[in-house]
Amino acid sequence: MTVAAALDQIRAIVGANGILTEPGDMAPYLAEWRGRFKGSSPAVVRPASTEEVAAVVRVCAEAGIPIVPQGGNTSLVGGSIPYEEGREIVLSLSRMNRIRDIDPLNYTMTVDAGVVLTTIQGAAADVDRLFPLSLGAEGTAQIGGLISTNAGGINVLRYGNARELVLGLEVVLPDGRVWDGLRRLRKNNTGYDLKNLFAGAEGTLGIITGAVLKLFPRPRQSETAFVAVPSPAAAVELLARLREATGDAVSAFELMSRRCLEFAIRHVGGSFDPLSEPSPWYVLTELTSGTRSDAFREAVETALGEAFEAELATDAVIAQSETQAKQLWFLREAIVEAQKHEGGSIKNDVSVPVSRVAEFIERAQAAVEAACPGIRPTPFGHVGDGNIHFNLSQPEGADTAAYLARWDEICHVVNEVIFALDGSISAEHGIGRFKKDEMPVIKGPVEFDLLRAVKAALDPKGLMNPGKMLP
Fold it and tell me: Carries keyword Metal-binding (predicted)?
């Protein structure tokens, strides 16, 4: 079957509104938002149901056409972008945006893969429940893509990654069959846990079309604090003390350097310095309780007071209202935007054991500064789960193109530190196209063979998001 004949069949399945072939219409689906990856495709297909997805996949399997599944296209590693040769179709789940069921008593929600994260958060709140996954792209990111990449975000410390927030999945397999695993059970000890094959597989084993999500009680009290700390080591010690003092009520614990804050104040409107004196490092933390009590705030204040006495903190402000809390969290998000205005930025999404975060930052900063004098590290991120976004802004006055041309070289310097500390070169962004060539290095021979065996068993023709994750 020719590609043209296959596209005619696909058009008959999804309708005229379900397929895009004009270059201008397809353009938003063919480029990563940072501009690092751009691809080509004969068509962007937008099915509206699981049945349509399955029918499209069957046509592609018969015609030998590779498929790139795509959610909100917020990937940072090129996982949702086709290659330049133009062989692959993009299959967007954006029209599959129904909330199928909410069961407040079972604390579950069943959704289509294309539902945007903020919609899920709002639907949970409407029934007095919480869906805790939260990240910067939540207004665009879709749940199917978030599960496929095992996304993290700011609340992993308390609630876990996307994989841990899923009870069941519905998946269209590479041959077009549908696996209905939409079970709402918390205990189901009947064989292999298949859903965890697809969570984090980046669309290389099948297309997630639906999910059963875990919900949680909504917090009744939240305390947000912005704390000046002298070092990353002090931040890690502060985290341990806050967890102990509040009965493990820490939901988020974010570290940022002074340079990060200065970039935000310089470039992003609405950014400000919350404290009267500068500090080399800061922590932004949120603690939540299921009941409202003066004792909870007192416990937070007492823990911070003890941190001052132990010289783990030098200053702090606790938000007095929800508005103030949002202003503090705005600073955290502004860090990402601000880096764009400081020239080229080489980005690393890495993780180490929490106890080794300070050692990683110290060693990695020294290593990159030796390799590229004048480089400006801007480390920030989720210290509570060991995930640091170790981003590196170009030296002042440097040529941006020449600096970015050293991306692989400088990332290799960072990776050497990561390997030495038993860490990971991808904490929450995935592998995609960007890091796939590192997989044989970071995975031992046995583990790598197992990964390839799984891929071969489920996708023997290699048509499901080819060239992603595994080289």
Answer: no
What DSSP string describes 351-386?
Answer: E--GGGHHHHHHHHHHHHHHHSTT-EEEEEEEGGGT
Same domain, 316 and 227: yes
Residue 336 sits in the same domain as residue 383: no
Paired tokens of 27: 């353009």
Angle subtended at Cα 104 by Cα 102 and Cα 108, rounded to the nearest 5 degrees: 60
Pairing label, strands 67-70, 89-92: parallel
List pLDDT tens digits, range 103-138.
999 999 999 999 999 999 999 999 999 999 998 889
Q: How far apart are CA 73 and CA 92, in angstroms?
A: 9
Q: The domain that contains 112 carries what CATH number?
A: 3.30.465.10
Q: Phi/psi at 370 (nearest 5 deg)?
A: -70, -35
Number of domains present in the structure of the chain: 4
Domain that holds residue 251: 221-340
pLDDT digits (tens, 9 = 90+) for 241-269: 999 999 999 999 999 999 999 999 999 99
The pTM of this model reads 0.91
Does 129 lie in the same domain as 88? no
Quick one: which of 267, 265, 268, 287 has its CA closest to 278?
A: 265
Q: Is the per-residue pLDDT at 75 higher than 90?
A: no
Q: Which of 340, 364, 386 is the last residue of a domain?
A: 340
296 with 303: CB under 8 angstroms?
no
How far apart (Å, rounded) are the C-alpha atoms in residues 306 and 209? Answer: 49
Residue 214 in tokens? 């875990």
Q: Where residue 61 sits, what CATH number does that domain have?
A: 3.30.43.10
The pair of three-digit structure tokens given for residue 344, joined into one six-digit string: 């080229």
User: 276 and 167 in one domain?
Assistant: no
- Residues 38 and 82: beta-carbon distance below 8 Å: no
Higher pLDDT, 440 or 113: 113
Other beta carbons within 10 angstroms of residue 148's beta carbon come to: 33
Mean predicted confidence (pLDDT) in 11-36: 91
Q: Does position 33 have pLDDT exceeding 80, yes or no?
A: no
In this prediction, residue 29 carries a pLDDT of 95
